[in-house]
Amino acid sequence: MEGPTSLNYRKSSGRGNGVKPMESEGPPKLESPPPKFVEASNLEFNLVASEKLPNYESLDLFHRAVYPFMFLAQWFAVMPLLGIRASNPRRLRFSYKSLPMIVTLIFMTATSILFLGMFVHLVKIGISAKNFGKSYIFNYSILFIKLRHISAVGLVFFGCVLAAYIIFIRLSRRWPPLIRYWTRTEMVFTRPPYERPKRNLTRRVQLAALAIIGLSLGEHALYQVSAILTYRRRVQICGNITAGPTLDDYIQRNYDYVFQLLPYSSVVAVLILLINGACTFVWNYMDLFIMMISKGLSYRFEQITTRIRKLEHEEVAESTFIQIREHYVKMCELLEFVDSAMSNLILLSCVNNLYFVCYQLLNVFNKLRWPINYIYFWYSLLYLIGRTAFVFLTAADINEESKRGLGVLRRVSSRSWCVEVERLIFQMTTQTVALSGKKFYFLTRRLLFGMAGTIVTYELVLLQFDEANRRKGLQPLCA
Fold first, then answer.
1. pLDDT at 136 over 80
2. What is the average per-residue pLDDT within 286-313?
């Protein structure tokens, strides 16, 4: 993030200008030292010793909104944390010597075997530019690793999944202090003068997450239907291939690159299907996690904007603007903390989405053999484009919400105008408040349109080079 993130307070002049505060909270006493917070492990974040412990289950907190989906991710070896279901974020911790971490390492090892099998397979047939851009299968899909193919798309897919596992392990190490700092920062937004919007944080995060999960399940189910029907039709037409459609034959044909390293058995076949499903989940969860983080941050900036808008056409004390700016800066500091932990995942997600969108669009004009293949291809293509756009727009809402209060601040009357208003306007206009990919770029709406333009440009070039392949048509079914 760019721009200042520290508060430069000045003492309130105490001029008797007749302006009365519009809100119940008085000006902060900057001369006195801040209250000493209780640091004992059995007590909570920002509580003075005389205050009661908060009921986290009744508060509109980010941890309460995302923990069901983080717990779901642990079933697929993502985010190996302990105490994820606890309402108190202080109970959340990370340990290398834990069952979730062992499960994660097992899934990583299995994924590495699939990656190695794919790599050995490509070395045998020869790695070339054609392998990265052309697939000789009977139906095109997002995840070409699921079907028998001669393409490095599967290698890229498994590589992204392995990188995601490593990034999520590193993120899990930083998550307990991060979520505690997040909770400590957003506690002020759960009390007046801030109001809870009609759709609270939990509902917003869960509706968006359920939509992504539902669409991804639909894509995966449609793939299974397409793959199985294609296999059955091929067996029926090409009787010399096998005596009849069987599960063993289906797995050996679709995952032959794995059995170049491992002997075939029913146990190995089941494990391959399990690991392949887990990889598909991780591949989708990268974008889902970024979306949930973006929802949580933009929600708090929206509350600040709502509070600023309520002050329009009112006479406001300078202490109110000091408090608003203090909360705004705290949110910017939280965003900086989150961005430092999330930027690797954001960079990987953007590269992954850009590659697969370009690859899918390159196959738009290819002929497919069965109607179910067309149905699955177009569903998967639209799902991938829609998911990518949705994640970008959700992340861009952080930047949009952080600036929506500018109009009201610029119309503050001369009687309420003070240096704090000027400082807040300057900070909103000059500071880039957005998530980033290792500071190479910031997730804003302008970036989304720039990415769309880049994809169109590359597709026009790639389609010209792929003209010869598209003229060849379908490969022989029984070859």
1. no
2. 93
Written as six digits, the tokens of 231 are 């296999």
Dist CA 152 CA 122 (whole Å):
7
Q: What is the DSSP letter of 23?
A: S
**CA separation for the pair 109, 116 (Å, rounded):** 10
Residues found in the chain: 479
State the DSSP H helix or E strand holding residue 105, giving kind and residue range, or none if neither.
helix 99-125
DSSP-derived 3-state class of residue 436: strand
Cβ–Cβ under 8 Å, residues 377 and 411: no
CB-CB neighbours of 423 under 10 Å = 18
Q: Measuring CA to CA, which residue among 409, 297, 314 is closest to residue 23?
A: 314
For the record, the structure tokens of 255 come out as 């995952």
CB 287 within 8 A of CB 388: yes
Tokens matching residue 165: 């596992």
pTM here is 0.82
Q: Which residues does 472 contact at the CB level (< 8 Å), separation at least 6?
A: none
Instruction: Classify residue 207 by burial, with Cβ atoms within 10 Å: 0-12, 13-18, 19+.
Output: exposed
Task: Tell me how far apart the alpha carbons of residues 454 and 279 are, in angstroms, rounded to a whole number.
Answer: 28
Lookup result for tokens 């949580």: 296
Cα 218 to chain centroid, rounded: 19
pLDDT at 466: 64
pLDDT at 236 over 90: no
Q: What is the average pLDDT across 318-338?
A: 94
**Crossing angle of helices 266-310 and 153-186, rounded to 10°:** 40
The CA–CA distances, whole Å, from 115 to 111, 112, 261 equal 6, 5, 11
Tell me phi and psi for residue 114, to 5 degrees.
-65, -40
pLDDT at 439 over 70: yes
- Provide DSSP, 306-355: HHHHHTTTS---HHHHHHHHHHHHHHHHHHHHHHHHHHHHHHHHHHHHHH
Question: Strands, E, within 52-210: which ranges?
Answer: none
| Residue 167 pLDDT exceeds 70 | yes
Confidence of residue 52 (pLDDT cuts 50, 70, 90): low
Mention every residue, 6+ apart, whose C-beta is less than 8 A from residue 52: none
CA distance 29 to 75: 49
> In terms of Cα–Cα distance, which of 224, 296, 297 is closest to 254?
224
> 3-class SS at 280?
helix
Query: Measuring CA to CA, which residue among 342, 339, 293, 356 is closest to residue 159?
Result: 356
